[in-house]
Amino acid sequence: MSITIHQFPCLSDNYGFLVRDDATGQAACIDTPDAAAILRELNSLGWTLTHILNTHWHPDHAGGNAEIKAATGCTVVGPAEVERIGTAPDQVVADGDVVMLGETTFAVLDTGGHTLGHVSYVDAADDVAFVGDTLFALGCGRLFEGTPQQMWTSLAKLTALPDQTAVYCAHEYTASNARFALSVDADPALKARADTIFAAREKGEWTVPTSIGLEKATNPFLRAPLLRPDIADPAEAFGAVRAAKDSFQG
Ligand code: ZN
Ligand code: FE
């Protein structure tokens, strides 16, 4: 069992991801930030798209569905909320479902909080997770629709994955996340990681994918209970760090 992942920048700060199941050649795109860019990349790789896997309904994640489906005839898989951008998915998925891409199995996790119906796709055999706007390198999604409790529960599902799991987040927000992280956490491991991130971004290098182990060690949202020992409830401690980021002027 193996997959090949092709990553490319889209729009101002999104990443596009194309995934091919090597055994069968079936290919999926994770979200559809930019239909033209995705179709161009598919063409240059010579891959045939069979699936779109949407994480949530936001236009920078599902806005290209209609154009890509029209061009390729692929099957659109996503949470029911994707209907909000105009067309319902062909296959609606929810927590506990499984999506097959050829011989590759993606487990669907409900990771609501950024939006209510946000899902993540986990290929445990290959230690890969596509997490949309739930978890970012040194960050997490803004709570547009959900509560701190809901997002904390969602993040806990991701941190329960093995440390070596590669985390494909949907945006390159890492340098800005690092500036906030340094403002709330003096941990030396964070400082070292932030230095690496600033140097990488200076050279235009990508900081995605990250890993579950790296995020557990340095992400201030996951470390919220440690950073806010004054708040007994972990979800409330998370909510306090999230609120601080929302008003952070970095
Ligand atoms: Zn979003
Ligand atoms: Fe987004």
Please characterize this protein's 3D structure.
34% of the residues lie in helices and 26% in strands. With 250 residues, it is of the alpha/beta class. The protein has one domain: 4-Layer Sandwich (Metallo-beta-lactamase, Chain A), CATH 3.60.15. The strands form three sheets. A six-stranded mixed sheet has the order 1-2-3-4-5-6. Strands 7-8-9-10-13-14 form a six-stranded mixed sheet. α4 packs across α9 and α5 packs antiparallel against α6. The N and C termini lie far apart (43 Å).
Describe the SSE topology.
Elements: E1 3-10, E2 14-21, E3 26-30, H1 35-45, E4 48-53, H2 59-62, H3 65-72, E5 75-78, E6 91-92, E7 98-101, E8 104-110, E9 119-123, E10 128-132, E11 135-136, E12 139-140, H4 148-159, E13 166-169, H5 174-184, H6 188-202, E14 210-211, H7 212-218, H8 224-227, H9 234-246
Parallel strand pairs: 3-4, 4-5, 5-6, 10-13
Antiparallel strand pairs: 1-2, 2-3, 7-8, 8-9, 9-10, 11-12, 13-14
Helix pairs in contact: 1-3, 4-9, 5-6
The structure holds zinc ion and fe (iii) ion.
Task: Briefly say what this structure is.
The chain contains nine helices and 14 strands. It has 250 residues and is an alpha/beta fold. The chain has one domain (3-174, 207-215): Ribonuclease Z/Hydroxyacylglutathione hydrolase-like (Metallo-beta-lactamase, Chain A).
Keywords:
6-stranded mixed sheet, binds fe (iii) ion, alpha/beta, 14 strands, binds zinc ion
Through-space gap between termini: 43 Å
CATH topology: Metallo-beta-lactamase, Chain A
For the record, the count of structural domains works out to 1
The CATH level-2 architecture is identified as 4-Layer Sandwich
Ligand set: zinc ion, fe (iii) ion
Please list the strands of the largest sheet in the order they lie side by side. Answer: 1-2-3-4-5-6
Average predicted confidence as pLDDT? 98
Helix-strand pattern? EEEHEHHEEEEEEEEHEHHEHHH
Task: Name the beta content range.
Answer: 25-35%
Oligomeric assembly: single chain
What Rg, in angstroms, do the CA atoms define?
18 Å
Give the structural class. Answer: alpha/beta
CATH class: Alpha Beta
Biggest β-sheet strands, sense, barrel:
6 strands, mixed
Low confidence ranges: none
Q: Which overall shape is indicated by the principal axes computed on the Cα atoms?
A: globular
In CATH terms, the superfamily is Ribonuclease Z/Hydroxyacylglutathione hydrolase-like
